[in-house]
Amino acid sequence: MKTFLLPLATAASLSLSLLHGADSAGYFDLGQFTPPKSGGTFVEVNLKGNLLSMAAKIAAKEEPEAAELIRSIESIRINVIGLDDANRAEIKGRVDSVRTGLNAAGWERVVTVQEDGNDVGVYTKTKDADSISGVVVTVLSQDGEAVFVNVVGDIKPERLAELGEHLHLDPLKAVKKAAKEDAAETKK
Question: Phi and psi at residue 28, in whole multiples of 5°?
């Protein structure tokens, strides 16, 4: 996970348009996080409003497709917390709590990966058959980090792979496929 930490924060800060926040169906309250007592990794990125608008304008010159994607995003929140003996159980409990809350709120778990000490869950909140209003990613990595991501917007499923590329979140690439399969099921 550490290999994507810096690119994740950099891509998020460079590549993301208006916060509707808690009023938006795609928003999920991940709660507050505190840095590990051991002084390990702690990253918090909250992008919304004018910062995202500026990023879209900057991206439009060199990457018009990326700018279009950025304009569809209302907000993005990323938290990366280093795990140590003092916070491991608390953070694992937080991951479980977030996942339980997502299930209870009607979010659909579209990606589950549990291998090589990694535990990844990707959830989507669909707006309609053609778009997703939110994506939440939870990760417990073998590298000793937990990652929480909430992307809010009017996101077209076919753009999720691109979003995954920009944020270096490989599980989002699988969301595109799952969303298409779900849309096909809905039309039946």
Answer: -135, 125
pLDDT given at position 167: 62
How far is residue 100's CA from residue 95's CA, in Å, rounded to a whole number?
9
Higher local confidence (pLDDT), 28 or 66: 28
3-state SS class at 131? strand
pLDDT score of 188 more than 70: no
pTM higher than 0.90: no
How far apart, in whole angstroms, are the C-alpha atoms of residue 184 and residue 7? 34
Q: Where are the domains of the chain?
A: 2-187
Angle, in degrees to the nearest 10, between helices 160-167 and 64-71: 100
